[in-house]
Amino acid sequence: MIGATYAVRTALAAALGLGLGLGAASAETKIGIAQFGKHPQLDETVTAFKAELTKLGVTDAVYDELQVNFDATLIPQMVTKLVSSNPKLILAITTPVAQGARQIVGNSGTPVVFAAVTDPVAAKLTPSWEAGDTGMTGASDLQDVSSVVKFIKKLLPDARRLAYLYNPGEDNDVAVLKLITEAAKAEGLELVEVGLDNTNDIPIRVSSLAGKADVIYVPGSNLVQPAVPAVAAAALGINIPIVNASAQAVRDGLVAAAFEVSYTKVGQNAAKLASEIIAGKSPASLAPIKPTYEDHTALINEAVLAKTGQKVPDSLKDCECLVK
């Protein structure tokens, strides 16, 4: 992740202490990176941000990186330390870090670009999706439900009934229900709601979809996602393919397909905003970027799909997204 062209110092704040100086080398473009902790998707975001920024012409960047090992109490110290080195801007990754950066940086003049923030409006980072805030804008990792449904229709063109498994007691699940209802209608699909408030009910509730649904979508639900193996077993028993919000279940051979936000794209989107700020634009003039269809990554398990009596359509055979 760390290229020879970058001067990077990464610290585990809990282990090494944030009192250490950053000691950055002189450069025309100094950028601070505040990361919540080491995590594959967050690391992917940082790597893509750096690569895209170089591609966009910012070739003299020097990076000061800090992370707090997912200890939210250390975020203020981390951000303060980065600000003290007078960077051109700060990349704040995840909602807690971006909120901490907003509080610490305020109107100090150091712009903040956030990344991997699901809903910046709800997090009070930007006033709307149409404009950035004073000193802050960024790239969201919000999954675009309409794009998910379009992918489902592309994968299973003959599908007419889409089952949605969700927890009625989880706000995010309910919010997605409204969005997926509209998206399904737009794609000519009938939505079949399957509410779950107990994972013990999964086998019965999923099995009841026999003859009532052609495909099941499992969102990033805190209740349902951990129970994907149980959902997959029940769905396979009635030959209904599953499209999941996370690709790991596809790699594990549990579900037929997944359509998830690409964190490489999130990092690239953040870099595009950063390059404009470096060029002199105000963050307030730059709307936060929502992932589009192209910002998602598909993964299809041909073997699992075949077990449900389906096959990969010709339109997806060259997608470079197939696993066996």
TrEMBL record:
Keyword Acetylation: no
Pfam families according to UniProt: ABC_sub_bind
Stored CDD domains: PBP1_ABC_unchar_transporter (cd06325)
Signal peptide: 1-27
Keywords, ordered alphabetically: Signal
InterPro entries in alphabetical order: ABC_transpt-TYRBP-like (IPR007487), Peripla_BP_I (IPR028082)
UniProt cross-references to SUPFAM superfamilies, sorted A to Z: Periplasmic binding protein-like I
PANTHER family, sorted: ABC TRANSPORTER, SUBSTRATE-BINDING LIPOPROTEIN (PTHR35271:SF1), ABC TRANSPORTER, SUBSTRATE-BINDING LIPOPROTEIN-RELATED (PTHR35271)
Name used for this protein in its record: Putative ABC transport system substrate-binding protein
Source species: Phyllobacterium bourgognense
